[in-house]
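User: what does the whole thing look like in 3D?
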Amino acid sequence: MNVLIVHAHNEPQSFSSALCQLAEETLQGQGHAVQVSDLYAMNWNPVASAADFAERANPDYLVYALEQREGAKAKTLAADIQGELDKLLWADLVIFNFPIYWFSAPAILKGWFDRVLVSGICYGGKRFYDQGGLTGKQALLSVTLGGREHMFGEGAIHGPLEDMLRPILRGTLAYTGMAVLPPFVAWHVPYIGNDARQDFLRQYQERLQHLQSDQPLAFPRLEQFDERLYPLPR
Amino acid sequence: MNVLIVHAHNEPQSFSSALCQLAEETLQGQGHAVQVSDLYAMNWNPVASAADFAERANPDYLVYALEQREGAKAKTLAADIQGELDKLLWADLVIFNFPIYWFSAPAILKGWFDRVLVSGICYGGKRFYDQGGLTGKQALLSVTLGGREHMFGEGAIHGPLEDMLRPILRGTLAYTGMAVLPPFVAWHVPYIGNDARQDFLRQYQERLQHLQSDQPLAFPRLEQFDERLYPLPR
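Assistant: Here's the predicted 3D structure for the full assembly of 468 residues, as structure tokens:
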């Protein structure tokens, strides 16, 4: 397998960084090819703007997705976007490794989604969910957070973590056609000791060594909807 | 009322920008004081990093929320963060005006949440949801998106929009104690003509003129949970 790890933590010594390194080593140890995009180390620019397009289909009025489509076709996207897009298209598995900020991805990673998941290649028109441009690829979130596990789930104070992560799991990764594996979650990380951290590292390594037995999460399929995307009777 | 509008669109002529301007004019016309943070025009930096702290509680290991707490106390936060934080604390109502990117906020706005909603002031310890640091303030999302209205809701292809926006509505704004009003949504914006856009502008103006009759969305209250944040029997 070709594996891309997109890593987004601002402290190189963080536990999140340790998870990233463990994934790289474990997957390489299994014979996979691994590339890591360390967004902070790369000084990644997360802001989707007019500067992303060397040539503009419409220089007078920016419609970002339209310019993405044209720029991807003409290969005139900004070099940093094209570089990440090439890695993404090379990958069979993409791991997004990050600390939860506001029940979501840090802005530096959100801007990777905004800029790299270009219209016309990753999605577009009726090419989304199981018809998306990235079908055949797998995605895995590896996240750390401050909350305890009992604060998440049905009836818990924050509700199910998967519901909080819905715009990423479903609205982003499944939307582009990727098979989304259940997230790996390390709870309460800023407050736990070394033993608990070692446990999470062991759990993650175990998980990575058996990814082929993981069942992807279930999301809508276009065949359940009509031409105008109204639901068909079941 | 003091109103802060946080605006995040990369095209100054966009319909989203027209909504921003309409809100500014309408609310000023009603005698409210309005400030606008136009994040693209400000060249806002959305990346939460060590550079945000002139002095570090722990220079050897960055825990972002911890440094926020210390920096807010000592008033040593980066000037751009302090400036936005001052506006936020001044405001009675905060409007977040943006195009939906990946069922969420554009990265430039996500980074406003990451950097400006500082620990120790906006939340911290048991100060969240109805006990959050920003209780007494109201929040409103004003969003544009490409999808049609029938693609959202129970059983629809993307499910309810409020579920996609959960990390913002509940996980961010309600978490800090703000009363969150139902979002104003302009659907299918890139594909509609001028008449339909004028309709949305009229609807939004009407909405803004009667905000006092809006019912905030319902979210958890801490009294429903015990000391360890397990749910209490109802």
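In plain terms: Chain A has one domain: 2-224. The longest strand of chain A covers residues 93-99.
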